[in-house]
Sequence to fold (362 residues):
Amino acid sequence: MRCLAFILIFLILLPFARFPIAHSNGSSLPNLNKVTSWAYQLQNADPEEIANSGFDLIVMDYSYDGSEDGEYSPQEIQLIKSGGVIPIAYLSIGEAEDYRFYWRDEWSENPPDWLGKENPEWEGNYPVKYWVDEWKDIIFSYLDRIISQGFAGVYLDRIDSFEYWSDPDNGEDIVLSEEDAAIKMINFVLEIAEYCRETRGLSNFYIIPQNGERILEYDKNGIYLETISGIGIEDLWYKGLDPNPAQVVEERIQYIDQVAIAGKIVLSIDYVDDGSGYKGENKERIDDYVSKAREQGYIPYVGQSDRALDELVIIPGVQPYKPSEDNEYSVLGVNMGWVYLVLGPVTVVIILLLIRIRRSVK
Fold:
């Protein structure tokens, strides 16, 4: 009977426990399911500012300015961790960038076979045949740098490159079926996860793809969804300052919710802040986006409409968001704090009655 009492008390207290993730350097960080705020800064990120920002998670470049010379030191990444912020490194796996350490000057005139045509929307970015071993080796060497710096995970961009390589109008020397292109991308993400978690021994290393959620159509055995730690989503409710059509939003949500239902984090960013301050139409747009994201169970970050991602966007009372204790333990809209407050004393009474009945029977 005493054993039963201890078990029941343990179950009552369990929901209030916060379990940190231990990392190889001895530090511990909150589990992703405890994250309530995040930030996204790819240029000029200041580790000290991030550590003191109040955000729970930061997606940042591995380098101050994207170059090899600007790489952050392990001590700087540790400073971020010491502030209770989870550092996640941005990594484009579907496009090559001409300012990265791996770029060769001769590629501009004599590109390797796996390098595609320059992205007309992003100067200096080139789609890659991500299934080619030479590109994979570059990414694995990139991961070595990120891991040695002490990042807790990676934020994988250009997952949606599978759509580019299956577009018959891409102007490239090859066009894949969409299924083939998607499966090749899924396999690449799985290889990245295996390299980080098994080859490098970081079993808790976070793998968070950005966009490309429609790839889940081709995740036939569910291993992609099982492997990723969550997903990052851009431009869901707004494209810049303009609302997206409801049909577009719903079509995307049907895939994104698969990640959420699997108990994994959804990091949302819409670039809805026009820089005029938290007032007037700008405030209405920001509030609309944030409320929609939170209602959907996603974690919002308000980005500036120039999409530069060159500073932390702080909006007092909005971001970084800190839930009140009243809302901290909520399941399906039910405040679990009150549930357990009532359940605890009732359970104790039941235990005492059972003990008394047992003694009377003896």
